[in-house]
Amino acid sequence: MAVVLPFAALRYDQRQEQLKSGGLENVVTQPYDKITPEMQRAYLRRSPYNYAHLIKGETKPTDTVTENVYTRAAQWLHDWREQGVLVRSERPAFYAYYQQFSPPGSHRSPRGAATMVRKGFIGLGRLEPYDGGVIFRHEQTHAAAKADRLELLRATRAHLESIFLLYSDRERQIEALLDRQTQRSPAAQVEDEYGVVHTLWDVDDPAVVQALRQAMADKKLIIADGHHRYDTAMTFARECRARHPGKDADCSLVLMTFVNMDGDGIVILPTHRLVSGLDGWDPRRFLEAAAQYFSVARFPFSNQDDRRKAAEQMQEAMAAARSTAIGAMFQGEGAFYCLSQREDVAWAKLLPELTPAERSLDVTILHRIALGLCLGLDEAAVGKEKHLAYVRHLEEGMESVEQGVAQACFFLNPAKIQQVRDIAFAGRVLPQKSTDFYPKLLSGLVLYPLDH
Fold first, then answer.
1. I want to staple 446 with a disulfide (CB 3.0 to 4.6 A). Which of 9, 77, 370, 429 is the partner?
2. What is the DSSP string of 436-448?
3. H/E/C letters for each residue in 86-113?
4. What is the DSSP letter of 29?
5. What is the C-alpha to C-alpha distance for residues 54 and 51, in angstroms, rounded to an integer?
6. Which residues have a Cβ under 8 Å from the Cβ of 137 and sit 6 or more positions away?
7. To 5 degrees, how large is the angle CA 328–CA 329–CA 332?
8. Contact yes or no for 81/10 (Cβ under 8 A)
């Protein structure tokens, strides 16, 4: 049973007479793990109250055990509350959260209106063990990222960023409930650096709150983003129980955003793979090995115009393939390739430990077959990102190969939400960097302090 609860959020005071922050657009940020060093510097310059001070502050050479990036975040949080920069909502509520956006690579309408809307709501969710049949993960986590977030949570005693959860509601009853709440003026609205418009409405009517709780009670939830923060929250809750037996209610509740996976606003972007540093790299030898498992189509080019056309042909071939298809570009080769799964290969026998859903995933076939069998990169090397790097944009991957940064780039189609659902509900996980849900949840709209 999924337990979701309203709460009185802590958030930036936007009343004009109290607007110390200079405007919401100056203080909200992308999630901590999407903040590059350049973005971090820009955020910190933007406002002394920018949320990056809390979630991605600067480390200093003089940092010690007692004064460091985590203790400074806790002090910032305390000071902002004392100064009235952050204020508590008057009453517990859920928060309808709509994101209007154009998917990357698409075109906006003439008036700049977004082409898609992702509809969700923010509340507290109860932590559940992965084997409890309520909350499911779809990615593995890494110790370093969890250690960092745990130190921040211990210092601030606040859930500063929301975990992104998916539920299934084909009839869209929950979205209908939310739509009725969004007919009035929003509590907050801001456009981020990617042109995504984020809008928030308070949902505090007791009848609507109860209806949302009841509608969510039988839902199974998949973590879309925030696996590290979820695992961190589980560890922190165990620490709370050890310190205060029988009084773990606050620590067992986490800031979550719930989105319908059957809604119209679900967009998953692909993450392409760069390969570099391989001794004796030979694209011809790789293609000979790949021909055992894939049908190979070649799209040559000799100049920039040809390159653009060849890249489009590769993408069209990948999209049109009946089964898994992987794109590729190799250093020193004036061509793109599309590697499509051969139907005469006994894939179930070749990968017997995987479920049919896992074997249908392009990234699984890339990792296990193209990288593993054809290039000799085993799972351990892939897991440690040895010889492997990631890029989101096709052009970035092409430039990396042409400039000699990478020996090869492998291009992927995006994972489908049905694949994510089937694999997660089967208790399995996708390979790392398999999904990139777009847009990201904005950080700084609401937060949940454990001290109330």
1. 9
2. EEESPPPBTS-BE
3. EEECCCCEEEEEEEEECCCCCCCCCCCC
4. B
5. 5
6. 130, 222, 223, 227, 230, 424, 429
7. 150
8. yes
Q: What distance in Å separates the CA atoms of residue 371 and residue 410, rounded to the nearest whole number?
A: 10
Q: How far apart are CA 8 and CA 15, in angstroms?
A: 17
To the nearest 10 degrees (0 to 180), the angle between helices 173-181 and 206-216 is 160
Answer yes or no: is pLDDT of 17 > 70: no
Quote the distance between the C-alpha of residue 450 and its chain's center.
24
Tokens representing residue 94 in the block: 């859920």
Number of Cβ within a 10 Å radius of residue 206: 10
Percent of the chain with pLDDT strictly greater than 70? 94
Structure tokens at 388: 């492997």
Residue 238 has phi, psi (to 5 degrees) of -65, -40
Task: Give the separation between CA 371 and CA 272, rounded to whole angstroms.
Answer: 13
If you average pLDDT over residues 128-143, what whole number do you get? 89
Exposure string of 365-400, with b = 16+ CB inside 10 Å and e = fewer, is: bbbbbbbbebbebeeeebeeeebbbebeebeebbeb
How far is it, in rounded angstroms, from Cα 196 to Cα 31? 14
Angle between helices 394-402 and 304-320 in degrees, nearest 10: 130
Helix (H) or strand (E) holding 138: none
Hey, what's the torsion of the CAs at 372, 377, 383, 385, to 10 degrees? -130
Q: Is the pTM above the cut of 0.70?
A: yes
Question: What separation in angstroms does the CA of 176 have from each of 100, 170, 181, 182?
Answer: 17, 12, 9, 10
| Identity of residue 362 | D
d(CA 373, CA 362): 15
Euclidean distance between CA atoms 21 and 340, whole angstroms: 53
Give Cβ neighbours of residue 244 (< 8 Å, ≥ 6 apart).
none
The stretches of 93-184 forming alpha helices (DSSP H) are: 143-156, 173-181
pLDDT digits (tens, 9 = 90+) for 269-326: 999 999 999 988 999 999 999 999 999 999 999 888 899 999 999 999 999 988 899 9
CA atoms within 13 A on the CB side of 304: 2
